[in-house]
C-alpha cells in the first residue's frame, strides 16, 4: 500500500532541472505570483468529433471514469499541500470544465481564451495574449489561479507538452512572458 507521502511525491514529481524534489515544487506552487496551468484530466482520444457542439457534451471527447477520479485526486492533493487558490479559470470544453469543477479548490469561471484551438489555430496568438493579460490582472490583484485548458494552449504559452492532468507552474515576467517554474506530474 502506498503511503500518502509516496503518492504525493509521485503526484508532485518535478520535471524542471535544478530543483530537488516534490517539497521544492510545493514551495514554488505556494509562492505569490505562481499560477497553475493545467491540462484537463484523462479524456481518451485526440481532438473532438467532426460534429462537436460546444453546448452539447455528448458530442465532445469527455473525461473517462479514470479522468474524473484523477481530477478529484489532484484537487485533494492541492488542498492537502496547502496550495491556496483564489479562482479556477477553465475552457468551455466539457472535459476541461468537469476537471475544474472536480478539483474543488476554488470557484470556477469559464474563460474563452482557454478554449482549445486544436482544430483551428488561427486564434492561437490572440487567445495566448488574452491568457497572459488575465494572468497579469490576477498578479496585480494578488490572486492565485488554476487555469484548466488543453495541450495545444499550454504548449503555445510555455513550450511544454503536458500529460493529461499535468500542471505547469508559471510566473508572469516582463512583457507578459510566462516563465515555467516547475511541473506537477499527474
Sum up the structure in keywords.
alpha/beta; Histidine phosphatase superfamily (Branch 1); 186 residues; single chain; disordered N terminus; 6 helices; 6-stranded mixed β-sheet; 17% strand; Rossmann fold
Task: Please provide a written account of the structure.
The chain has 186 residues and is of the alpha/beta class. It has one domain: 3-Layer(aba) Sandwich (Rossmann fold). 37% of the residues lie in helices and 17% in strands. The chain has six helices and six strands. The protein has helices at residues 4-11, 22-30, 65-80, 94-103, 124-141, 151-158; strands at residues 34-39, 87-90, 108-110, 145-149, 167-172, 178-184. It has a six-stranded mixed sheet, sandwiched between helices. The protein is globular and about 40 Å long. It comes from Methylobrevis pamukkalensis. Keywords: Signal.
The number of domains: 1
Can you count the helices? 6
In terms of DSSP E residues, the strand content is 15-25%
Shape: globular
* Rounded average pLDDT: 89
Largest sheet: 6 strands, mixed
Radius of gyration: 16 Å
CATH superfamily: Phosphoglycerate mutase-like
Unreliable residue runs = 1-20
CATH topology call: Rossmann fold
Identify the CATH architecture: 3-Layer(aba) Sandwich
Number of strands: 6
Question: Approximately how much helix is present in the residues?
Answer: 25-40%
Overall CATH class: Alpha Beta
Category from helices, strands and their pairing:
alpha/beta
Return the string of H and E elements: HHEHEHEHEHEE
Q: Reading side by side through the largest sheet, how are the strands ordered?
A: 3-2-4-1-5-6
- End-to-end separation in angstroms reads 19 Å
Amino acid at each position: 500500500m502506498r503511503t500518502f507521502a509516496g503518492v504525493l511525491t509521485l503526484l508532485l514529481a518535478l520535471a524542471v532541472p535544478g530543483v530537488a524534489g516534490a517539497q521544492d515544487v510545493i514551495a514554488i506552487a505556494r509562492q505569490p505570483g505562481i499560477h497553475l496551468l493545467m491540462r484537463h484530466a484523462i479524456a481518451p482520444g485526440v481532438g473532438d468529433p467532426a460534429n462537436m457542439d460546444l453546448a452539447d457534451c455528448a458530442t465532445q471527447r469527455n473525461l473517462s471514469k479514470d479522468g474524473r477520479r484523477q481530477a478529484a485526486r489532484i484537487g485533494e492533493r492541492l488542498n492537502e499541500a496547502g496550495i491556496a487558490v483564489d479562482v479556477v479559470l477553465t475552457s468551455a470544453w466539457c472535459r476541461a470544465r468537469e476537471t475544474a469543477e472536480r478539483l474543488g479548490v476554488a470557484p470556477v469561471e469559464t474563460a474563452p481564451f482557454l478554449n482549445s484551438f486544436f482544430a483551428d489555430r488561427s486564434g492561437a496568438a490572440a487567445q495566448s495574449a488574452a491568457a497572459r493579460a488575465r494572468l497579469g490582472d490576477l498578479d496585480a490583484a494578488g490572486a492565485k489561479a488554476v487555469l484548466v485548458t488543453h495541450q495545444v494552449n499550454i504548449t503555445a504559452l510555455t513550450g511544454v507538452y503536458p500529460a493529461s492532468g499535468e500542471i505547469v507552474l508559471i510566473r508572469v515576467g516582463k512583457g507578459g512572458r510566462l516563465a515555467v517554474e516547475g511541473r506537477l506530474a499527474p
